[in-house]
Amino acid sequence: MKVKAIYKSHVLRPVGDLDLEEGEEVELEIKKNIVKRTYGLIKLDAESIDEIIEDTKYGSQCFRDK
């Protein structure tokens, strides 16, 4: 089961209802948004950003040849 939740005031609350029994134990795997984890990690000029966007959108030449 995949569930979205919001963390507020040190409590993780599911966004919707869960199909669980009262007191049932579960295991969680927390994944953060990739943008939040990587924001500001590297500084790039506008030209480099445009090149990355183009390669991502259409696939870079090195991947097309494989």
From TrEMBL:
Species name: Methanothrix soehngenii (strain ATCC 5969 / DSM 3671 / JCM 10134 / NBRC 103675 / OCM 69 / GP-6) (Methanosaeta concilii)
SUPFAM superfamilies: AF2212/PG0164-like
Name of the protein this chain belongs to: Antitoxin
Pfam families assigned: AF2212-like
InterPro entries according to UniProt: AF2212-like, AF2212-like_dom_sf
Its job: Antitoxin component of a type II toxin-antitoxin (TA) system.
Keywords tagged on the record: Toxin-antitoxin system
Family matches, as Gene3D superfamilies: AF2212/PG0164-like
Similarity field: Belongs to the UPF0165 family.
